[in-house]
Design a protein that fits this description.
CATH superfamily of the domain at 1-157: Tetratricopeptide repeat domain
Structural class: mainly alpha
Distance between the termini: 116 Å
CATH topology of the domain at 1-157: Serine Threonine Protein Phosphatase 5, Tetratricopeptide repeat
Helix content: over 70%
Number of helices: 57
Number of strands: 0
Strand content: under 5%
CATH architecture of the domain at 1-157: Alpha Horseshoe
Length: 1009
Amino acid sequence: MKKTLFLILLALPFVVSAQADKKLIAKAEGGDAKAMCKLAFCYERGAGVPHDSTLALQWLRRSADLGEGEAWLCLSRYYLVGTMVPADTTRYFSIRKEWADKGLPNGIAALAVAYVHGFGVKADTAHALELMRQAADKGSDWAYLALGEVYRTGDLGQVKNYKIAEQYFKKALKAGETEAYRDLAYLYAGMGDFKKAWSNINEAMKWNDPSAQFLAARMLYNGHGVAVDRRKAITLIEEIDAANPMNGYGLETLGAMYMYKDDVASTVDSLKAIRCWERGAEQKHAGCLNYLAAYSMIAGDYGKGWALLNKALEDDEDDNKGRTCQMMADIYFGGYGVDQSDDSGIVWLKRGVEKYGDAVCATTLAEHYLSDEYVDEWGNYPLAKQYYMKAVELGDTDALVQYGRVCLAVGDNKGAEEAFRRMIAYGRPDGYYWMAALCSQKDDLSGAMEMLGQGDKKGSAACMELLGIVYEEGEQGIETNFPKAAKYYIKAGTPRSYNNLGGMYLSGMLGKRTPKDIKTGISYIEKSAEMGYVDAIYRLGYMYENGEYVDSVDHYKAVKYFKTLADNNNPAGLFKMGLYYELGDGGIEADSVKSVECYRRAAGMGHGEAMCYLGDFHRIGRYLPLDKDKAFGYYSAADSVGEELGTYYVGRSYLEGCGVNIDTAAAVPYLRSAALMGVGRAAYLLAELYNYGKGGMPAVSDSATRYYLMAYENGSAESGYFIGKSLLQEGYHAEAVKYLYNAARRGNYDAMVLFALCEMEGVGVKADPEDGYSILEHVTRRVDNAAAYYHMGVARINGQGCRQSESLGKLYLDTAAMLGSTSAMSVLGVCYLNGYGCEPDTAEAIKWYTNAIESGSIDACNRLGYLYESREEYEKAVECYLKSVERGSDEGRCCLGLMYEKGRGVVLSHKKAFELYSAAAENGYGRGFLMVAYCYLDGVNVEEDYVTALKWFVKGAEAGHVLSMFNAASMYEDGENGVKRDLKQAKYWYKQAAERGYEPAIQALSRMK
């Protein structure tokens, strides 16, 4: 039982700071009972008068005879502890009974203490409670406080009932008992209503109450209802200890604070911590002994740890023995210095429950029986229920929450309702919150809203907060109502509520996103962060990191917030600090060792992205040794915790053979999963596999297109570029430009180059050569992009979108060629052949064409072939055209066909010539159609047939070939050799050729007019 509270409230003397002086002595001698009591304390302590125990007892008895409660209390206490008189519990009891028999309310309350502890009488808690209630009925402020504490803590066999406890404390407050502020603060803190707790603790602090100061320190330390200030918390407890050396619990708490590391108290002071616990151990305080035991075991001294735990079991307080049993159980569960044994762990937990009445042992047993090691998916549900209920009987109404939640999870709605309604009966307004959850699970939305409304009326911050969420997001079948949501968020006053409220201002749900609104939103988020809300702290860090909603990017402030999270072992904060240590910003010097440490700590807490970073380091040998097996291990771990990037990297590892054998079939399921989770890079890899048939995958254009689009929708700029490029090739110019533009905005330089060319040529977008050229310049200022330099070179030579300059154009082409552009190498051949930006030099031209051919250029094959053909070096020309044909060039086919037709450099063969022309035509190549048409005109490998020739000219014209257009128009105009004259068709095709700048067509069109 938790009998300590009565000792605190009733068995100890009140703290009196009076000094004896003439005025106090005169009042005492004049018959003032309170003055007599104070004068007795002065004689006891030698305050203003000589120390005199005899006089102290005389004045105390005279004061008691006049009915002064404090005198009765202290007189009996002297007999209990043997101060100034021999210890005599029988006399202790008789004094208190005499006081109670006078009918004095506080006397009856004081007598109850004797029955609680069995001092001078047989212990009888039932009679003690009866006396306390009698005293309360008579208006005893002490009884109000004591009964409030009984129901707050679940003492003396009573179940916790916060509602009844609150009523008693408020009665005590009304009776003028200022200590009730402190007790209300403890009550509200236990209920999780830290806003009310902090308000009451501030009132209690005005009366110099050490217990209130202690709770204030704990709230400051944890950020409950107030901004975290651990330095101030430690100072407050140190002040308490300095004024009056603390008991074991206070020393246990202070020691724990010394061991904590954060951004304020940045160094662990283990020596101070150990000294605190040693002082507590001298008082045989089990909590301190437990800490010393844990510290010894961490250091590997299991023998000393066991000895300390056994010593802790000698503690007089059952609460602490229960905690020792918990530690014993943990030791066996974990196998720390002993053989691992769940059975032994359970024995210790049961001992904590059955022998010491420890509620935490009971809830731990319940959780243990819920583990999947027992019976089925939900473990041994009946046993778990039994121990949750046992915890409730032992005063832990929080066990009802856990039990009810488990009932919800397993579909036991009846059990859940029973638990939550008992919470309400015990004065726990959060019971309404859980009843709302139950109604929601049963699709009873009106019932859920009714429960939330009742919880709101009873002061449940959780219900208020959820009502805010409902009205903000339009849940539970309720339409959104932003002003109403704001009202509930403000009323709740919880960290999450303030964070949500701030978000509403930032998003424009409240206000109009004016600078004032944004400032208001940020202030609410800051308030939430001050209360320790992790999401708010991270949000502020992100805002300053990215310059979102704030004046500008401020990495110093971002680091401040992320470091706060990291110092509290938050994985997201550790990950961000890993990034800052890796890159070196925000006042943080680049430090790969600290970066890796942060990533490792975050990964150890299940942060998937941190695992991926560590995997990358091992994969490329950066910061960590090159180890592809470990890389794959980290990627797999990230995948196992649901990190989409981990899933992507596992798939990629199978493609590249990173820590595993290359296995495309194994890669695809991971890449598909990652793509469906929104990883653009995964969708892009799948698109490439399906588009090119890589890794043994079948080439499936529909699948490729689907994944390219999926990748694009998930932010893949590469996919946007590929889609745009493909649409351009298929003639969907306007659509192509949209994709290219968006891909360019996402930072893809290839997309920027292609979009620039579209602007320069007016393809799919209004022609703007100047802007197109400026985009190319933008690209080359940021990266060494060969295509950008190549197109700038061609534009300079032609004066397209810029001032013409052949020398500057050639310089850009030189740069592009150095970067590997085969197109630039080929055009440099043209420059040297024709003297663009340089002196004409055929040998140099041949060298550049050859370089381009060796680098895979088809265009250079054809251009060098033209050059050799013009020099009548036909065999060399044929070699070039053959290479062009081997690389799939339809222009090469036409050129080589002409060589066979004329018998230049090869044996004359009209058949081979016709086959090559036909192959080019089958591929839709305009000149191929033209050459086949000429064969029908001239009878090359076929009979002369002007009608068939016209058909091939028309096919070439429809493919956009200008000379085919002109020839078709001429045949329609002449109408000879079986071709029917058609001036309308003639004009049409002349016009098409003329619009493309073909001079003979322009003249013919003019003649026909």
